Amino acid sequence: MVSAIPRIPWLKSFFELRFNQYLGRISFCLYLIHGPVLWTMGDRLYVATGWYRPEHEINTPFLINAFPMSKAGPLGLEPSFLAPHLILLPFTLWVAEVVTKLIDEPSVRFVAWLYDKMKAPSEQQK
Are 39 and 46 in contact (CB under 8 A)? Predict the structure, then answer.
């Protein structure tokens, strides 16, 4: 697939879109933070829209159906399931952007600098 994409113009242009390039830049941090965001904020948003488990009745009873929404519709397209994603998706992308700028990019620059300093003298002259 990697060798085919540069040879298929319409597919290459799709991957060169600004948004796709942005997703590629933040992809590692997006991978790292999407789970914790879903486990914390996502869990509470789902409970507030009516998707709860018995343990929520003990831990967060005040959130259960705080914003009641319809569960009618095809599986995965219920308004009560989609509404939390209107908050979760932009928030997750924002957190991934912040982590990329504050942690990922500086750490990559630091490791590259450290690597240059640790190279043997003969390798530095090449």
Answer: no
Structure tokens at 57: 């009745």
The residue extents of the domains of the chain are 5-124
| Residue 124 host element (H or E) | helix 121-124
Q: What is the pLDDT along the chain (126 residues), one digit of tens a residue?
A: 889 889 999 999 999 999 999 999 999 999 999 999 999 999 999 999 999 999 999 999 999 999 999 999 898 899 999 999 999 999 999 999 999 999 999 999 999 999 999 987 776 565
Both tokens assigned to 105: 């990019």
With b for 16 or more beta-carbon neighbours within 10 A and e for fewer, the 98-121 pattern comes to ebbeeebeeeeeeeeeeeeeeeee
Q: Residues of 56-77 as b/e, b for ≥16 C-beta within 10 angstroms?
A: beeeeeebeeeeebeeeeeeee
